[in-house]
Specification:
eleven-stranded mixed beta sheet; 286 residues; five-stranded mixed beta sheet; alpha+beta; globular; binds zinc ion; 2 domains; 18 strands
């Protein structure tokens, strides 16, 4: 099942993003249209959605797809979850996942123009897990049962702000407007050949800069669900940015950051592609 959001209405869409079925219309108002409410009633929704064939729906405008999870109640993000990325960031491989948030006003749709707020804007392609059931003290073996779906995310990071204080300001440096794009769709894990091993990567102006597999994560999706839920309950519709593989600009010699006109394309196999164009901040007149 693939969920998309257009004009704040939830749709079930086909893999090619050609056709879709409006959830609220097709269910006579039982589910949707609000994207957040879908996750509050995920099990019943998933059961109903299994009977829907999106390819029989109406033509959709893929360019109109918005953030499929526009208003999660909580946003979790994990640092240093790939060993090579920890090394390039000059950190040890952590014993426990370092956790921060990306403030909600940084959330954005899959295709956006992003203003550069500083000279050190960096890229981090990430698998994002969407929670489908209230999760508290979930054993690792049951972690996947609490995940409704997966999407593509970018944990865009302004490194000057991130490291301008001690300890570093992870949440602030990663929360400028549109620094947390997600999409283009939420894909249920059963759609993937192996939900624990999907390829992810990103390119700048067509040049590949990151490539990895989620099987390389130090803490897997079910381990993250288990760990986070051992401390704070996870709510339906919450999202977890699960960390980035190596290849970020900060870890390069010389370092590289995004500049005016750069186009960042991020993809996860079996899920889709998101694209951000970066522009210089508008200078104020007078
Ligand atoms: Zn990250």
């Amino acid at each position: 099942m693939r969920l998309a959001v257009i004009k704040n209405r939830t749709l079930l869409v086909d893999e090619a993003l050609d056709r879709g079925v409006d959830v609220a219309t097709a269910s006579d108002g039982r589910f949707g249209p609000d994207p957040t409410s879908i996750y509050d009633n995920w099990e019943a929704f998933a059961e109903w959605a299994a009977s829907v064939t999106p390819a029989d729906g109406n033509a959709i405008d893929a360019a109109a797809l918005g953030n499929p999870i526009p208003e999660p109640r909580q946003v979790f993000a994990i640092g240093l979850n790939y060993a090579e990325h920890a090394a390039e960031s000059k950190y040890e491989v952590p014993d426990l996942p370092p956790v921060f948030t990306k403030y909600r006003t940084s959330l954005a749709g899959p295709v956006e123009t992003v203003e550069l707020p500083g000279p050190k804007v960096d890229w981090e392609v990430e698998l994002v897990a969407v929670i489908g059931r209230h999760a508290h003290n979930v054993p690792e073996a049951e972690g996947w049962n609490y995940v409704a779906g997966l999407t593509v995310g970018q944990d865009i990071s302004e490194r000057a702000t991130q490291f301008n204080a001690t300890p570093p300001q992870f949440s602030l440096g990663k929360s400028y407007p549109k620094f947390s794009p997600m999409g283009p769709v939420v894909v249920t894990p059963d759609e993937l050949a192996d939900r624990d091993d999907v390829e992810l990567g990103c390119s700048i102006n067509g040049e590949q800069v990151q490539k990895g597999r989620t099987s390389e994560m130090i803490f897997s999706v079910p381990q993250l669900v288990s760990y986070l839920s051992s401390i704070t309950p996870l709510l339906p519709g919450d999202v977890i940015f699960t960390g980035t593989p190596s290849g970020v600009g900060l870890g390069r010699t010389p370092q590289r950051f995004l500049t005016d006109g750069d186009v960042l394309t991020s993809r996860i196999s079996g899920i889709g592609t998101i694209e951000q164009r970066f522009v210089a901040a508008e200078t104020q007149n007078g």
